[in-house]
UniProtKB/TrEMBL annotation:
Location of the Thioredoxin domain: 1-142
Matching InterPro entries: RdCVF (IPR029520), Thioredoxin-like_fold (IPR012336), Thioredoxin-like_sf (IPR036249), Thioredoxin_domain (IPR013766)
Gene Ontology biological process terms in this record: photoreceptor cell maintenance
Organism: Nyctibius bracteatus (Rufous potoo)
Gene from which the chain derives: Nxnl1
This protein's name: NXNL1 protein
One Pfam family recorded for the sequence: Thioredoxin_8
An annotated GO cellular component: mitochondrion
Lineage: superkingdom: Eukaryota
Length: 206
């Protein structure tokens, strides 16, 4: 997904606007579902939807709600009329959001690439840049955070922390139980051999 923003800059949504470096961007976007939020702080429909999107994002990424943040990143693509309007809007949104700098020409490229004709629009992308949903606004309104599971499956994300823990547990379990399984197998073989020997001896004596 970082390839989409190669040579571009994104602003971190903090009190002091810090430009993400290319290395930081790669780390921020790798192996995650990306939401491109095309909106405006002045648009009435956006003003109704943005609090829902904020709650959606926070419930999936904030430690108050989840033990570990979901593999989710959001980039705000502004249609605000001034930089002050964009900044004022972003100050009301989660700090983990990223944003295109105000007036960045790449905004128009993204609008054309994803055929964005109205706001609010939320384009959902796989880590490789493929589109999962052209506009997930209604899906987010209807399902809330539950729809992330569908996106995660569609993106075939590798949840490394989960898989590593799962693999470790299986490996530990296997290493502990395998000797017992082998021992049981040997005992069964010995018992079977003894029974066969007794049976043969019984037949011979008769």
């Amino acid at each position: 997904m970082a390839a989409l923003f190669t040579g571009k800059v994104l602003m971190a949504n903090r009190e002091r606007d810090e430009v993400e470096t290319e290395r930081e961007l790669g780390r921020a976007l790798e192996n995650k579902v990306l939401l491109l939020y095309f909106g405006s702080g002045q648009c009435p429909r956006c003003r109704r939807f943005s609090p829902l999107l904020k709650d959606f994002f926070v419930r999936l990424t904030d430690e108050f709600y989840v033990e570990r943040a979901s593999q989710l990143v959001l980039v705000y693509v502004s249609r605000d009329e001034t930089e002050e309007q964009q900044s004022a809007f972003l100050r009301t949104m989660p700090k983990r959001w990223l944003a295109l700098p105000f007036g960045d020409g790449f905004k128009r490229e993204l609008e054309l690439r994803f055929a964005v004709s109205e706001v609010p629009t939320v384009v959902v992308l796989k880590p490789n840049g493929e589109v999962i949903a052209e506009n997930a606004v209604e899906e987010i309104r209807r399902m809330g955070p539950a729809c992330f599971r569908n996106w995660q499956e569609a993106a075939e994300l590798v949840d490394r922390n989960f898989l590593l823990a799962e693999d470790f547990d299986e490996l530990t379990l296997r290493s502990i139980t395998d000797p017992f399984r082998r021992l049981k197998y040997k005992l069964d073989k010995k018992t079977e051999a003894k029974n066969r020997q007794r049976k043969e001896e019984g037949e011979e004596s008769s």
